[in-house]
Amino acid sequence: MSKLFSGDLFLLHNPKCSKSRATKALLEERGAEFQVRLYLDDPLDREELEQLTKALGRAPGQWVRKGEGAYKEAGLGPASDDAAIRLAMSRHPILIERPILVAGERAAVGRPPEDVLVLIDK
After folding, report:
1. pLDDT tens column, 68-107
2. pLDDT value at residue 3
């Protein structure tokens, strides 16, 4: 099993993204202990993306960045199935919506950043 789903908090982070930076700052303000994975430098593999699909409880088509040039370049469109989208995300990590906080078998997309708080607030 991937360390990403070990039970520790992992932030899939892109420091160039304002929402990702805001989510990271929010977690720090709350005193959350988490690890950062720069997913553009350390892409998720297809198995991790499949696990992430389950953790989010959302189909990949709901958290793929359709406005990225890589979406069209990968041949993706409205009829693309989950497997094709995950494969494209593994090859083009820029397609993964950001940020995503992973907490064991659960995950949340930080759009808005406060949406990740369900994973840390008791």
Report:
1. 999 999 999 999 999 999 999 999 999 999 999 999 999 9
2. 86
Helix ranges (H only) for the chain are: 18-29, 46-56, 69-73, 82-91
pTM of the predicted protein model: 0.94
Give CA–CA dist 31/111, Å, rounded.
20
Burial 92-121 (b: 16+ CB within 10 A, else e): bbebbbbbbbbbeeebbbbbebeebbebbe
pLDDT at res. 1? 54
Question: CA–CA separation, 76 vs 40, rounded Å?
Answer: 19
Superfamily of domain 3-119, CATH level 4: Glutaredoxin (3.40.30.10)
Q: Does 17 qualify as catalytic in the annotation? A: yes
- Tell me the C-alpha distance between 113 and 78, whole Å: 27
- Spot the catalytic one: 6, 12, 17, 26: 17
